[in-house]
Amino acid sequence: MRQRRLMNQINVVPYIDVMLVLLVIFMVTAPMVQTGNINVPSAGPAAAPVTEAIVIQVDDKGAYSIIRRTGAQPESISKERLSTTLKDFVTENPEQPFLLAAHRDLNYQQVIDVLETARKQGVQKISLQTQSGTSGR
What we know:
Blueprint: H1 13-29, E1 54-58, E2 64-67, E3 75-77, H2 79-92, E4 97-102, H3 108-120, E5 125-128
Parallel strand pairs: 1-4, 4-5
Antiparallel strand pairs: 1-2, 2-3
């Protein structure tokens, strides 16, 4: 009795037939589909004006200073006083945003220490200030 050889090819003709039938169905039904409209409620003007961010500066020697508003001179502050000052700002306005401007040569751990101090004092919004431009200083 002669052994029957296995066929190593896949017959793809039935798959192509099914695909073409589905294509025809989608082509016929696509123009019939209606798009729906969603009425989204509109929001009124902002309830409170955006609060200006307070800038915490750390220079290359690790000295701290705070700038309360744009254009103001930086006020030097000790590391110990930074914690209580942040707490006072958060008590006054819990949504007060802060910016941390650290010198590029500063040890990264000192930046993390300032962020950790801010977190412990309840600061909710703090960002790292970056330098714009491509200067290679």
